[in-house]
Design goal:
This protein has 416 residues and is of the alpha+beta class. It has helices spanning 13-24, 28-39, 58-67, 73-81, 97-105, 114-124, 131-134, 137-151, 159-176, 185-207, 218-242, 256-264, 267-283, 331-334, 338-341, 360-379, and strands spanning 3-4, 42-47, 50-55, 92-93, 157-158, 297-301, 305-311, 317-321, 326-329, 399-401, 405-407, 412-413. The protein has 16 helices and twelve strands.
Length: 416
């Protein structure tokens, strides 16, 4: 590999110690930025005797997440038939991440590899093709609820929890045919709290790699159980309603849950996929270049393979990846590379987007966010930062890194 992460103490203990302190201070990603700026986009990391690679290289990230991760048509064919006709070994897989996330997410797109992953991806694209959302009708009720909450508030308001409630409402309306707002307030708040807690613990479990099973506290199990109970209730009501009559795609009554049940014929699998979609839909409206929804990802080599870049004196040659090696993929830093985006890479310019796979799901997220922002500005043209609110450089704000990235201090504004 092109470079190696230095450590003053054996086994990378000094790096772990510094990371622990930076994480406690909510500045982990900012702490690591100078190391990566100096060492380059591909480096070897040796922590506690376990060697892994970290890459900010677009070609390597694409290879691990797309071109050499989703399998082949044969793998999809085998999955669809549910018969082991041929074993296809993918280059990269989730490895221990599947086990660390499974109590929270179950059997869904975030815990799947290869053919099953691609099958789920194609299935989950369906609801985002609805004309009901292309003409903004599906966002109107959740946005109006958001505006009403803002109107009834005074003083300094934290938009972050309100935005999370908004995206949760639009996603549940898309999936179940009704927004989460139509559920009991206490039940909804309990679900949101359990969802946040399970996301945080799942991230900690993922960092333990092979030892994720050690950390399985009772409060985590309780949160996962509460999430499943909440989703089960929607599944039961939605399937009961669907039995009363057909629902056509494009109509106001269409619910994606009907498609899922027709596909799986298993309410548990339907519930698990719905929880996965809720995770994605609740947090991925943050699709800006400087703040990608998933700032850090991990894959493991399923067999001895290679990456297109990182080898040789200049780091531009292929590099061998031994079987079992962990690969850290960091789009958060890739989108801050000055050799790609210029000297002003840390400046926010809306016209300059990061490298993404433009998909119908991203279209949905951008439309959802754009519509909400425009309506907020129309309703509250004087919206601004609170007086005396500190303004810090991009990337230096306090952050909470769970499954997704969010501000540790929220998003404080004054609307009047």
């Amino acid at each position: 590999m092109q470079s190696k992460l230095p450590s003053k103490w054996p086994l990378g203990l000094s790096v772990l110690h510094q990371q622990w302190k930076a994480n406690a201070d909510k500045h982990l990603l900012a702490f690591q930025q100078p190391f990566l700026d100096e060492l380059g986009p591909n480096l070897e990391v040796d922590i506690l005797g376990s060697v892994g690679y970290t890459t900010l290289d677009p070609e390597n990230i694409e290879a691990a997440l797309s071109t050499r991760f989703d399998g082949t048509s044969i793998a999809i064919f085998v999955y669809a038939l549910k018969k082991p006709l041929l074993k296809v070994i993918l280059d990269y897989c989730l490895g221990t991440r599947r086990g660390s996330m499974f109590p929270f997410l179950g059997e869904g797109i975030f815990t799947q590899d290869g053919g099953p992953w691609k099958h789920s991806r194609e299935l989950l694209r369906r609801p985002f093709l609805k004309t009901h959302y292309q003409d903004l009708k599906g966002f109107q009720e959740p946005v109006q609820t958001l505006l009403t909450k803002l109107s009834s508030s005074s003083g300094v308001i934290d938009l972050q929890p309100l935005f999370f409630q908004f995206t949760l409402a639009t996603t549940t309306a898309l999936i179940f045919g009704q927004p989460v707002e139509s559920s009991d307030d206490d039940q909804r708040d309990s679900f949101a709290s359990s969802f946040d807690h399970a996301s945080w613990i799942t991230t900690l479990r993922s960092r333990l790699t092979d030892f994720y099973w050690i950390y399985n506290p009772s409060h985590y199990r309780a949160a996962c159980k509460n999430i499943q109970k909440f989703a089960d209730g929607f599944v039961t009501r939605a399937l009961s309603a669907s039995s009363e009559g057909e629902k056509e795609i494009g109509s106001d009554r269409y619910a994606f849950i009907d498609d899922l049940y027709a596909e799986y014929k298993d309410t548990r699998l339907v519930r698990d996929q719905l929880i996965n979609v809720l995770l994605a839909g609740r947090d991925t409206t943050a699709s800006l270049r400087l703040y990608p929804p998933i700032p850090v990802n991990v894959r493991f080599a399923n067999k001895t393979t290679w990456l297109p870049r990182g080898g040789g004196p200049d780091g531009k040659s292929p590099v061998l990846v031994p079987k079992g090696l962990g690969l850290g993929l960091v789009p958060y830093y890739m989108h801050r590379r000055k050799d790609i985006y210029g000297a002003d890479a840390m400046d926010y310019r809306p016209a300059r987007k990061g490298k993404t796979d433009q998909s119908v799901t991203e279209d949905f997220a951008l439309m959802e966010a754009s519509y909400a922002i425009v309506r907020i500005v129309q309703e509250f043209p004087d919206i601004r930062l609170p007086p005396g609110h500190p303004v810090v450089p991009t990337g230096q704000e306090k952050q909470e890194l769970t499954v997704f990235l969010k501000s540790a201090d929220g998003c404080k504004v004054v609307v009047r």
